[in-house]
Design goal:
The protein is of the alpha/beta class. It is built from 17 helices and eleven strands. The strands form three sheets. The protein has a six-stranded parallel β-sheet with strand order 3-2-1-4-5-6, with helices on both faces. Strands 7-8-9 form a three-stranded antiparallel β-sheet, with helices on one face. The longest helix is centred in the middle third of the chain and has 22 residues.
Length: 403
């Protein structure tokens, strides 16, 4: 659905100012969540270069920036320059949250460590995003999401047993860290705003959120002495669960994670005789004979097209869904009906599709209020509010403090 931006939308975080010093995915995901619900997110970017996310281009267009930079403002500041650091501290005095994703120790070396920031603004919430955390033997290492997705245990359990481990084809660890960071920032902000509350430092590594979403792996290992193996699309906790080919060359995902759903699935496929079969009677039985079960189910699924299978499942309430590619997803009637993907006016593309605001609040919804900014677009607005005149700004440009 084509939408206009809604610059006048009233959102629940309208009175919150966020200074975003981060780069790439995790920090931008974090601050996009806050921006979508009204926070004034000011990206502090390197003069002439900006956030590295701007360099992730498709056909010459910074599509990642257009999506994850939406609802934000851009100010350029050279933090290697003393005047740039002074201006940042001036902004800190007006801010509520500061987000950074430098390697641990970088802010301290610039004289902008948490002690200094909290001295300037005792109510400030400081979110520090890094690969491995601010402490520990690996704190000093550079850390991209790929390394975390490997070390966390995810890659080792993803893919098929007879093939190499598989890393995710998107920034999974960064996205999780961004979501955890956004919730932590709001928790800390609630405390800071309470009577007697203070600002604080939030240490968000990419590693810990990634580990947290993988399930009770450490507990299972303690109980069994074994680790999860790669099982493709199967589950090690419930069966049947897999993707099955259809007669028209498409794929259908099935997850029958309860006994009732399994029995319903078997009946609709004409396999009701398997319900009392000792090999498949309970979930544990089905897991022990999952290859035989998948073969029997797969044969019945292959008798029908994807659409025929989905229609049959929908009639009786069986849990199945198509395996979509992006071109199919954007045309799906449910995606369209809920406006999960919206298209907004764009100077480069005419209109740019992107995910809508997540989640949907009945009383205080978020909104997409303006597009991702050009580099330094809001220098005059934000720095001018600090008392800098157009002549001052021009002088700062000449000194390389801003661009």
């Amino acid at each position: 659905m084509l939408r206009d931006y809604d610059p006048g939308a009233q959102c629940p975080l309208d009175d919150v100012r966020v200074l975003d010093l981060s780069r790439l995915v995790a920090g931008n995901m974090l601050t996009q969540v806050l921006a979508d619900f009204g926070a004034e997110v000011i990206k502090i970017e390197r003069p002439g270069r900006g956030d590295t996310l701007r360099d992730w281009r498709v056909k010459g267009i910074s599509i990642y920036w257009k999506v994850y930079g939406r609802n934000k403002k851009s100010v350029t500041l050279n933090l290697q320059h003393e005047r740039g650091r002074e201006l940042l501290l001036d902004l800190v005095r007006t801010g509520h949250v500061l987000v950074e994703s430098f390697r641990p120790g970088t802010l301290e070396r610039m004289g902008l460590g948490p002690e200094r920031l909290l001295e300037v603004n005792p109510k400030l919430v400081i979110v520090r995003v890094s690969g491995w955390g601010q402490t520990g033997p690996y704190a000093h290492r550079p850390g991209f999401g790929t390394l975390v997705e490997a070390m966390s245990g995810f890659a080792a359990m993803n893919g098929f047993e007879d093939r190499p481990p598989v890393l995710p084809p998107f920034s999974m660890a960064d996205m999780y860290a961004g979501l955890y960071g956004a919730s932590a920032a709001l928790i800390a902000l609630r405390h800071a705003e309470s009577e007697g509350g203070r600002g604080q430092v939030i240490d968000v590594s990419l590693l810990e959120p990634m580990i947290s979403v993988l399930g009770p792996l450490a507990g299972v290992y303690r109980l069994t002495g074994t680790t999860k193996k790669r099982t493709g699309s199967r589950s090690q906790t419930a069966a049947p669960r897999n993707v099955y080919g259809t007669s028209d060359g498409k794929w259908l995902a099935i997850s029958a994670s309860t006994q009732d759903m399994t029995e319903k699935l078997l009946r609709v496929l004409g396999l009701e005789h398997l319900i009392d079969d000792p090999r498949f009677k309970t979930n544990a039985d089905r897991l022990a004979h999952v290859e035989e079960l998948d073969e029997l189910i797969g044969a019945r699924i292959r008798e029908r097209t994807l659409e025929e299978n989905l229609r049959l499942f929908d009639e009786v309430g069986v849990t199945g869904a198509p395996v979509y590619s992006t071109d199919q997803l954007v045309e799906d009637p449910h995606v369209k009906g809920r406006e999960i993907i919206v298209e907004l006016p764009d100077k480069d593309m005419g209109r740019v599709p992107m995910h809508n605001v997540v989640a949907r609040l009945s009383e205080t919804p978020g909104a997409i209020r303006h597009p991702a900014p050009e580099l330094g677009e809001h220098n005059e607005e934000i720095l001018g509010a600090l008392g800098l005149s157009p002549a001052d700004l021009e002088a700062l440009r000449n000194e390389g403090v801003i661009s």
